[in-house]
User: Fold this.
Amino acid sequence: MKRTLRYGMVGGGQNAFIGAVHRMAANLDGQIQLVAGAFSSDPENSRSTGEQLFLDPRRVYPSFEAMAKAEAALPAGERIDFVSIVTPNFLHAPVATTFLKAGFHVVCDKPMTLTLKEARALRDTVRKSGKVFALTHNYTGYPMVKEARELVRTGRLGRILKVVAEYPQGWLLDRIEAEGQKQAAWRADPKKAGASCCVGDIGTHAENLGRYITGLHIEELCAEFTSFLPGRKLEDDANLLLRYRGGAKGVLHCSQISCGEENNLNIRVYGTKGALAWQQEHPNELKFVPKGEPAQILRRGNGYVSAAAKKSTRLPFGHPEAFIEAFANIYLEAVAAIRARSAGRKSAFDFPTVDDGVEGMAFIETAVKSARSNGKWTRFPKL
Amino acid sequence: MKRTLRYGMVGGGQNAFIGAVHRMAANLDGQIQLVAGAFSSDPENSRSTGEQLFLDPRRVYPSFEAMAKAEAALPAGERIDFVSIVTPNFLHAPVATTFLKAGFHVVCDKPMTLTLKEARALRDTVRKSGKVFALTHNYTGYPMVKEARELVRTGRLGRILKVVAEYPQGWLLDRIEAEGQKQAAWRADPKKAGASCCVGDIGTHAENLGRYITGLHIEELCAEFTSFLPGRKLEDDANLLLRYRGGAKGVLHCSQISCGEENNLNIRVYGTKGALAWQQEHPNELKFVPKGEPAQILRRGNGYVSAAAKKSTRLPFGHPEAFIEAFANIYLEAVAAIRARSAGRKSAFDFPTVDDGVEGMAFIETAVKSARSNGKWTRFPKL
Amino acid sequence: MKRTLRYGMVGGGQNAFIGAVHRMAANLDGQIQLVAGAFSSDPENSRSTGEQLFLDPRRVYPSFEAMAKAEAALPAGERIDFVSIVTPNFLHAPVATTFLKAGFHVVCDKPMTLTLKEARALRDTVRKSGKVFALTHNYTGYPMVKEARELVRTGRLGRILKVVAEYPQGWLLDRIEAEGQKQAAWRADPKKAGASCCVGDIGTHAENLGRYITGLHIEELCAEFTSFLPGRKLEDDANLLLRYRGGAKGVLHCSQISCGEENNLNIRVYGTKGALAWQQEHPNELKFVPKGEPAQILRRGNGYVSAAAKKSTRLPFGHPEAFIEAFANIYLEAVAAIRARSAGRKSAFDFPTVDDGVEGMAFIETAVKSARSNGKWTRFPKL
Amino acid sequence: MKRTLRYGMVGGGQNAFIGAVHRMAANLDGQIQLVAGAFSSDPENSRSTGEQLFLDPRRVYPSFEAMAKAEAALPAGERIDFVSIVTPNFLHAPVATTFLKAGFHVVCDKPMTLTLKEARALRDTVRKSGKVFALTHNYTGYPMVKEARELVRTGRLGRILKVVAEYPQGWLLDRIEAEGQKQAAWRADPKKAGASCCVGDIGTHAENLGRYITGLHIEELCAEFTSFLPGRKLEDDANLLLRYRGGAKGVLHCSQISCGEENNLNIRVYGTKGALAWQQEHPNELKFVPKGEPAQILRRGNGYVSAAAKKSTRLPFGHPEAFIEAFANIYLEAVAAIRARSAGRKSAFDFPTVDDGVEGMAFIETAVKSARSNGKWTRFPKL
Assistant:
């Protein structure tokens, strides 16, 4: 398949945020081309978005159903190879299911679905389809996150004892969802976002990041949800204590009302032989402290980092990479998987899958359950 | 009283840590002079410590009881003005009580006592004695901690919503208490340290710091204690969720097994109008973020800091102050209080009192109670 | 012109560095499409590079001359709109001149030419051509560099007194140019790089950055060049003192043998009313210290930054942008200028021009002259 | 000599800065006792300062000559062991000479004298006297500066190629010397400060620090002095290029008009095998980058630091030490030398000597000479 892959997008019309990010990430490496879209439930928004993106108007659709049908009817050499789903949460499952059944690979934003039940059903659909399904837990695309995972995998930290994961933001310190800010409006609406706002939107990234780096799975948790702003239906702040399978302990807190915080996802992992720390807002550095030795600042692009970190890097050391490049790494891996699948090759790829999506939904639902029982320790369900 | 004050020390013999800190803090400003001591339960250790400190051998005592008695018998112009208690926890209450009853002012290390009950009894003794009692929660002596308190007091943060206080250390990642390390040995021994190791030794500093800065009191908490090292009787790691009176929420975690962490006490306070962050290992800076504005890095010694911060500062900006100077600020305030008390003046001073000690013991006991009930949310007792 | 622009590339074959960066920068925003190239003086390298980039083999050329001729002969709706020149320095002028004369706009890497004389000649050619010429002094594409310029422009720093610009790297601490490392080989070869290695390659970025932010022009300089590695013909380290027109003073030092340094371009500007500091390796932050007030950390994407910084930003605060995005900003502005020029519109755009290239070459030549006269203070020539 | 040493102070009256620092540094370790002083040329200032310091009024003198005479006449068991000189520069030599000739050891602030000639004469006096003479280049007292020196000494950096030393301050951005600010007034007055303000006051610290860490001596330099404020007689900003004996190169710049800078002395040293960086405002950390490896953050108090760093440390890791403690290390070493000298022992001690003072004065004079010749490269004189 010596050609760029073609994709279509569902969601991502004007005033959306994450759709534009997906497009830049997809553009970056010249491997993928946007050729179709159903960018909004508002057909005029969809149309004008398509025009701004220089798309053929015939492939700018008024609905995702129309798009799936029409694209499937195009000749193989023209139709999209995959779809990117960048809608509010409640549409993830229906759109993904529609396109999988129409024979397309899927890249989907997180959290995967509205409920755990829906997530399990989507897992079944993916398995039956034989198609690639990638979930954009984009923070695992950072090279130094991959380096962190390698440190754990290769035993440099010894046995993990404690994990502290934080994701503070401050952008919902005012009730902007009531003032028509689109991003806020759907996230604060249980019908569109699900049973959680803060944990569903960002806490799930912290959980996923911790799991990606350490390989640990949560066994029990205790959650304290707060909705600090009057009239807000879902929590805008959450503090959790975690017990991992095998005995490690964790603290995970996230917030959308922490004044001055921008997008400060960060993690510290403490083991018997070493510790590591990483901050999303300074993604090119990873702190590693071998027991009894000076802290080391590992930096992206150097000869001493692992093959996994090198593979996901585009620039030499000191030429910083950031959010879009990490996001693009998810796309690159998904695209490589699609190319392999199309060629009948079986290979391992490094992107979040439908199984990660199921575990993420289990995390959200368990946290909600604990919070609703006044912070009772609550066990994870079977996945 | 145009003279230096004279003091004696109980504890602080060779191989002790905190005694030497107290002496340096007391020396720094030339206001106080060490003239007596019962430095160890081992008389030879006491004697040789006294010798190294150039003390008159007649005022180096084999026991604190002997010291209290002998010093009380000296003429007013010779005897100590106050005693500094720097022993393991279990001796704080008996030594303090003895010296208060013998008519001396007291400076005492934290945590104040072994139990809350003992703390309340000591409070009664202090009140009856009319003497000054200062508890060395030394971290509140830092100028930029005082600045943080002023920011809260003057409304710059608005209403406080969330407090995150951390105190990770890593020095007990090996079981050094079993290898004769004195500092570790008594802290890990319930008879000498009380019902908690990690929370009693350092978590209590984090609680005190949060209370000092925000003025908030804990109403309920949920605590997860872990003893990661086999054979260790008390917890070496603790994670807590907090509910403050009035609705603010908190996360407090402390650890002695977090590899690579040295003495990383730090706090973040988020309010409706602003946020602040302070780290003990970089004590000359305080981050303040007014809502919607750039973060400000406030630095000790500048014209723009509050009177409270200025008062507790010795050096111009850029000439860093640190741990000993902060510790010395507790001494300076206690000494000023002693001078005022002796002169019959009533003034307000800024040092931790016996009431802080009682609230600290309540914190420790409530945390222990919650942890022992598998992390059940537990209410604070009446103080 | 409701379509993506088409461009061709000269240079940027396999094992090149900057060509790939240009392509990612050009890809990012979906405004530009690579359709042609003469990627290497080695036709096989050019061919296979074109194949990897999914290009039509007919538009992958064995030489830049062939490309200019063939593209000019294509119909308007097919031929390239502009060329990107990413070759070693000695080819910049001939390639640019060829394409300008063939009627194409030009994006060219820096330093602009081999000599100041050549730079002046190219300036004439550009002026006569009526075409857009953009020089990729990419570091001025960073939003917080634009913010820095706005701080100066709007008087927040008062009168500028002192500028300290540094650009330390360490990658030439071994003589890798003798071991076949392509990037090093041409940079260390006077025939391909010109009369300077370190100043020409990176010092010129520091000079350009200082000028972009402050608007100051150098009047005299004193330069100390060192070639620390035996056998190296050009300097690998340079330290300069600067006198600006109007009385400000400067220090500029750059190095390719500073162990541990990656790509640490940074600048501090001190004025009578305020100061600023920016580091390329942490590009989303800008430190600003108003006189007598706390330092402020301005961060990209916030409401409080200038329109200029906002315009060049793609992501919300806390979602870091980096090198490629800054580079892409140069392309976006150049593309906007090309669209405007094609539409007959006159507008101001924010990208480095041929005049910047001339001043950069004057800087390099003056530094070389001073260094060769044992560090004598040397005046800038007329541009 | 099992007793505290007794010292007297010349200078350091009210409104002085450095005198109080010397006293706190001397107090800290309980090894030294202040018993006498001639604190000011104003006898009333001297008297009241002595009173505040709880001194016996009979040992508070109206002049340093009176003090030297009277103290020398006291019995051996009463008179001072040494004098601390904390006056403006022009008095250093006369006071030191007087006390040395009266048989006292001397601790003296820097720069050592007004002129190089005076420095050489003082060196002769010291040598003849057989007394200890310590110069308070206090920044070399920091443990992590000693660690830096050990890294160089033990070859961890290989051959040194480049040194960048900076000392920016901003406190003279207004002409406060004309408004009666005492610290500024004498520093800006050539009669009291000597031929240089900025280099004499702080540049000399940067030179000394570089020499202490690297062992390198300057062979030639080129200096650009500026007096940015109208009416100021001496320079308030200086930029220098350095050539060291043996081929290393250096950049040294210092400033008193760099807005927002407090006391930001810092140094970077680049060698063939590694590099180091240290900042005075964050003194507990030292960055070390072995070639090709991650940067290491060495922190005071850890087991992995050198014996030299350990010896000069009072607190465990994570309990920060700072300016006063470093200053006190100079005193501790001087006191140890005095004790050894008194006991007839010969040992090596680690404090700045009269030879350091001579080299420092040579640096100042060479810089002045170069600056006055429009920045001509100028050779160091024979010391």
In short: The interface with chain A takes residues 2-4, 17, 20-21, 23-24, 27-30, 34, 51, 53-54, 169, 171, 261-264, 280-284, 299, 301-302, 314-325 of chain C (CB under 8 Å). The radius of gyration of chain C is 21 Å. DSSP finds twelve helices and 14 strands in chain C.
